[in-house]
Amino acid sequence: GAVVSQHPSRVICKSGTSVKIECRSLDFQATTMFWYRQFPKQSLMLMATSNEGSKATYEQGVEKDKFLINHASLTLSTLTVTSAHPEDSSFYICSAPDNSGNTIYFGEGSWLTVV
Amino acid sequence: AQKITQTQPGMFVQEKEAVTLDCTYDTSDQSYGLFWYKQPSSGEMIFLIYQGSYDEQNATEGRYSLNFQKARKSANLVISASQLGDSAMYFCAMREGLYNFNKFYFGSGTKLNVKP
């Protein structure tokens, strides 16, 4: 079964609203989680590194005020897309490495459509 | 410079044959990890195989093996006895460093089509 669970799998929201995506590690504690964005037929683009108990580290070009990341516990990280616009429509996926770091588990991904 | 390069946007293979998906990487770190993931059309990322930079033997997991050529900085994935269910996108990834908080870099992917 899944060891990293992501919710919701699909969400449609109106332009200007905010959407929260959750990423949970089920069988292990994840001090670090990663958030990616993937456009159709393209690779995964790292958006930010989520660290439990501290601020997320954002990649260059990613707006931290638009993509709010909260890693409040060792099993949960959330990505909130604030004031969403149609260009934010994409596939968002999280990942969490296990304690060894040799296995990185991905969530199921979330399809966001902003209308 | 690209950290991970996958030069084959698409590949075709006949069912039951073997196929090699190419991956080269670029790093000056001595410690790193190489990963291969499969992404079917549903979008989920399925872990296939891992190779650490200090591992002397090529990693194998069932029908998957990683042809690790450290001097050439290549980490090709070999799938033996292809099955129709192997049709998917395949991503090569590298983690610079051996800690779980080190970042991942993904290649652009290779779309594999297995023909019956």
Task: Please tag this protein with its features.
heterodimer; A: 115 residues; mainly beta; 7-stranded mixed β-sheet; B: 116 residues; 6-stranded mixed β-sheet; 4-stranded antiparallel β-sheet
Describe this structure in words.
- The complex is a heterodimer of chains A (115) and B (116).
- Chain A contains no helices and eleven strands.
- In chain A, the strands form two sheets. In chain A, strands 2, 4, 5, 6, 9, 10 and 11 form a seven-stranded mixed sheet that branches.
- Chain A is globular and about 40 Å long.
- With 115 residues, chain A is an all-beta fold.
- Helix content of chain B is 0%, strand content 51%.
- Chain B contains no helices and twelve strands.
- In chain B, strands 2, 5, 6, 10, 11 and 12 form a six-stranded mixed sheet that branches. A four-stranded antiparallel sheet of chain B has the order 3-9-8-7, with no helix packed on it. A two-stranded antiparallel sheet of chain B has the order 1-4.
- The mean pLDDT of chain B is 93.
- At the A-B interface, β4, β5, β9 and β10 of A face β5, β6 and β11 of B.
Mean pLDDT across all residues of chain A, rounded?
A: 92
- Determine the structural class of chain B based on helices, strands and strand pairing: mainly beta
Count every beta strand of chain A, where a strand is a DSSP E run of 2 or more residues: 11
Categorize the overall geometry of chain B: globular
* Rg of chain A computed from alpha carbons, rounded to a whole number of angstroms: 13 Å
What letter string, H or E per element, gives the SSE order of chain B?
A: EEEEEEEEEEEE
Q: Sketch the major β-sheet of chain A.
A: 7 strands, mixed
Provide the residue-averaged pLDDT of chain B.
Answer: 93
Strand content of chain B: over 45%
Distance between the termini of chain B: 38 Å
Oligomer: heterodimer
Strand count of chain B: 12
